[in-house]
Every structure is written in structure tokens, then in C-alpha cells.
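SEQUENCE-TO-STRUCTURE ENTRY
===========================
What this section holds: a protein sequence and its matching fold, both as plain text.
Question of interest: how does this chain fold, as expressed in C-alpha cells?
***
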Amino acid sequence: MLYLSDRDLRAVGLDWPAFVDTAEAAVRLLDSGDYAQPVKPYLRYKNLQNRIIAMPAYLGGEVNAAGIKWISSFPDNLKAGLPRAHSIIVLNDPGTGQPAAVLNSPVPSIVRTASVSGLMIRHFLQARARERIRLGIIGWGPVGQYHCRMAMALYGDRIERITIFDLKGADLSDYPSPERERIEVAETWGEVYRHSDIFITCTVSNHRYIDIPPASGSLLLNVSLRDFKPEALAAVKAIVVDDWEEVCRENTDIEQLHLEQGLDRNGTQAITDVVCRSGLTAFAEDEPVFFCPMGMAVFDIATAVYYVKKAREAGIGTELA
């Protein structure tokens, strides 16, 4: 069994085109039906704002792996100087069930999340020609920063500026130059929201605050799931989810749209529709696109398999008897 630590996984490096290709291949396997993925349970106890989520899945095709991600989110960790989230991924041999690898790091989970966002941007830009992009990010923690790096690596030649906002302020000292020179720190979330072609929420907000309709023709990547008041999205027709059963629960913005605005599965597209059937071309150029991903375990398994393959090729990690 291969053990990959946080240091090992960082040593593998970040190949964003390969990560997004991995996410796209996983979507096509989803569409083919060659997967298994039960709805993930949430473990809560004592302080109910904390949660640990079990995310099991099998993905066939060239991935051909089963496994589970076990990820915790404890918001008060930040006050103690600890990361909010911790996660491990265990991969099993799909034929025998024998554990084949353990990845002990939040990096694959964050990479998976940013890669799925990158995949949506890829298909958004295929459906709507945009020579220049104004990118906006709310929340400048690890997820927000990785999204910024992903976008710059894949679409940096089109990005004219990046505007970010974080309630705690945004420290750019560790962000690489010259990319840092294109980043502006806004004073309010509204400043970012109103003037972004692609707008990404990467917050840990426990209340909804976005109360105005989105900019015409914009792409909204609602990574943090609980940022938009239902009335702000009431007129949006292009709503995309990764999985309706997963995302219409746990007080997500999709669930609130369902409860307050009558949104149902038929009023959404799945990510498989966007990737496999060019679903975004069904909407007018000026229609905002709202993507709300709960996070699917099949993407974690595909990303973990990629990391294990690259680590073995490079001789990275520890083999455990």
C-alpha cells in the first residue's frame, strides 16, 4: 500500500490541464453509468456546526478504482490557528477490495474542487466566446487561492484582472509574482460581484448575503454553497448542479431555491449535460449561468488515482507492507 503525505502530494506538483482533463473524463464515465456513488452521510455530534463527511465511490473505465474520502470541517479551528478542513482518501483495489493507497492531505480535495470549477469554465468559454475575462473571488483561504492559480494557469492569457474580497482581508505576500500584479483587493463583496464575468464563492459563510441579481452573461461558481439569497437567483434560468440528490439538501442555495422558488430537478442541468451534450448552448448569451456543486466522490477518486500514478512514476511516497 502506498502512503502519500502532504509533503509527497505537494512534490507531485500541480498540472492544471491534466487535472481538468481528469475531471472531464470522470464526467464522461458518470454519463456512461460506469460508476457507483451513494449519497454521502454527514456525521455531526455535540457542536453541530462541525461535520465529518464520508464520500465513497467507484469509478470504472481507465480509472477503475474504488475508495472513500473522509473529510472534516470544523470552522472554529481557524480561531486556534488550525486548518478548517482535514481529509484523507483511501483507494481500494476494485477487484479484491484490498487497500492500495492512502493520501493524507487536503491538497487532492482542494485540487478536485478547483478542477471541477475549471471544467465548468472550459465549457462556459466554449459556449460563449470571451476574449477578455474579469475574474472575481470571494474568500481568500486555500480554496480561493487554488481557484485563482487554476484560472491563471488555464486562462491567464484572457484574464485582464482578478478582484478578490475576504472579510478578514487578503494577504497576497505568498502569492507568486507576476500574477500578483493582476490581483486587486476590493473593499466589499458587491464590488467583486457586480464587475466579474466569472464569479467564484469560496467562503465559509454561515449566512446568505448576496441579495442582488447576477451580472448579465456571467458565470457563477457557487463553490461554498450557501452565499446567495433565493431572490437574487429567482430569474436565473441556467442552473447547473453536479448531482441533484446530493445538492438539494443540507441548507444549500439549491435547496433554498427548491423550497422558496419551486426549483426542481427539471429546472436544472447536470454537469453531464454541460460536458457531454453542450448544454450551455441552450441559453442566450446574456443569461447568467449558476453552478452549484455539492462535491462528488467520483472526482476525488479520479484525482487520487492521478496522484498515485504520478507519485509511483516519480518514486514519491512510502510503500507500506
User: Anything to note?
Assistant: The first helix runs from residue 6 to 12.
